[in-house]
Automatic annotation (TrEMBL):
Gene3D superfamilies: 1.20.1280.50, Ribonuclease Inhibitor. It comes from Ficus carica (Common fig). It holds the Pfam family F-box. This is F-box domain-containing protein. PANTHER family: F-BOX/RNI SUPERFAMILY PROTEIN-RELATED, F-BOX_RNI_FBD-LIKE DOMAIN PROTEIN. Residues 3-51 form the F-box domain.
Length: 439
């Protein structure tokens, strides 16, 4: 009979292994060894979700697990719960029952709490209201909430909380203010909503470093003097007030709201330490920044949606810029660039139509001619056809669009079919190439 090597593992190693698993799998794993059979009683994490399980079975399973866990705690005073995850997407569980589960795990040693009570498609159902006991955990460092209500945050005490995410959580402005006020150590905040917040979003936190916001607001005001990274995604015009965020180094924002009136330049000029900028959607944008090092442009519209007289145009004056990324479904973009220290460009075209018309190749040549200062470049696209310029077009072009390019990498989503034709076209495009990689 083979030796039971699993049983010889130290307890802390077994606990570590089981803590990564949903509780139902941790229990199944405990059947692998005699010594493991009651080991899950004392693992530091409990993770429950109702995927692929009937409602009555799920509720009974959670009840029995917590009952046995209580037995484990009584038998071992050093056994504590540090992580609790509850993800209910389908089952209808009584609020009082969920309250009881949370009250059981809301102990001083709890460090991570994840509660998600639905999905995007279940928002019409009655929403669960998080009890006050979950907002008074002195050791909690991570709090993730989804598809529930926050109604009473008058007595929040989360002194060690570092990270918090609110996904489709209904919370009024004053309640949100009190919630953040009760998290003095908060460094990372994620807010995703669709219709539940008020029209104005106000966030005030002296220790906040990372902020990610998605939603429809008329005005966003952030008072966070130590903020380093800001990501904003929205669908409507929005007024921003980030005047106090002078330490911001990373910014990702929808650019469609800054249309040819100087608002965008005024916006980023308020961030003197900005090093990385991601701009999603744009028409006419002027980017001038002395310390900017990384620029990412994500174009959200194709040429069929843009009138010929208002082609997207980006003016870039960034003397310390070293990296430029472009992601879009066409090459209908004019760039005026003053960035003498540029090292690399990464170009991604995400449309299967690339290379199906002469207009595509002409637009691509015009686009690439704006990037003739680069020494290194990579392309990512559906197929190599998007870069195999027609012979008759090559004969009309007297000078190569990328005369200074030394290193080029091309990666296609589909297997290369015309490798030799592609290489010939690329060497015409960049006659000074020293290295060429095609995948």
């Amino acid at each position: 009979m083979a030796a039971d090597l699993i049983s010889q593992l130290p307890d802390h190693v077994i606990h570590h292994i089981l803590s990564f698993l949903p509780t139902i799998y941790a229990i199944r794993m405990s059947l692998l060894s005699r010594r493991w059979r009651q080991m899950w009683y004392s693992i530091p994490s409990l993770k429950f979700n109702d995927y692929h399980i009937k409602e009555e079975l799920f509720i009974n399973f959670v009840e029995q697990c917590l009952k046995h866990r209580l037995m484990g705690i009584r038998g071992n005073t050093t056994s504590v719960i540090t992580t609790f995850e509850l993800d209910i997407t389908r089952c209808r569980v009584e609020s009082s029952q969920v309250d009881r589960w949370l009250s059981f795990v809301a102990q001083p040693h709890l460090k991570e709490l994840h509660v998600e009570m639905g999905t995007f498609y279940s928002r019409s159902r009655p929403r669960y209201c998080l009890p006050q006991v979950a907002l008074n955990l002195i050791s909690l460092t991570i709090l993730n909430l989804g598809y529930l209500d926050l109604q009473d945050c008058s007595q929040v005490n989360l002194p060690c909380l570092k990270s918090m995410s609110l996904t489709f959580v209904y919370v009024e402005a004053e309640v949100l203010h009190n919630l953040i006020l009760g998290c003095p150590s908060l460094e990372e905040l994620l807010i995703v909503e669709d219709r539940f917040f008020s029209s104005n979003l106000q966030i005030s936190s002296s220790n906040l470093k990372f902020l990610h916001v998605e939603g429809d607001w008329e005005r966003i005001q952030v008072d966070a003097r130590n903020l380093e990274s800001l990501v904003y995604r929205g669908r409507t015009s929005c007024d921003f007030d980030f005047a106090s965020c002078k330490k911001l180094t990373h910014l990702s924002v929808n650019g469609g709201y800054f249309i040819c009136d100087g608002r965008f330049q005024n916006f980023i000029s308020g961030f003197p330490l900005l090093e990385s900028l991601t701009l999603r959607g744009y028409d006419l944008v002027d980017i001038r920044h002395q310390y900017l090092k990384v620029l990412v442009l994500v174009k959200l519209r194709d040429s069929s949606e843009v009138k010929s007289e208002v082609k997207p145009q980006i003016s870039i004056d960034a003397p310390n810029l070293v990296s430029f990324d472009y992601m879009g479904n066409d090459a209908l973009l004019q760039i005026v660039m003053n960035s003498p220290n540029l090292l690399e460009a990464n170009i991604t075209f995400d449309s299967y139509k690339n290379g199906q018309s002469m207009e595509w190749y002409v637009n691509l040549l015009n686009f690439l001619s704006c990037l003739d200062c680069f020494k290194s470049m990579s392309f990512n696209l559906y197929s190599e056809q998007g870069l195999i310029f027609p012979e008759n077009l090559r004969k009309l072009i007297r000078s190569s669009p990328l005369p200074n390019l030394k290193h080029l990498k091309v990666k296609t989503w589909f297997k290369l079919q015309k490798e030799s034709e592609l290489e010939q076209a690329l060497r015409w495009l960049s006659p000074s190439l020293e290295t060429l990689s095609m995948e």
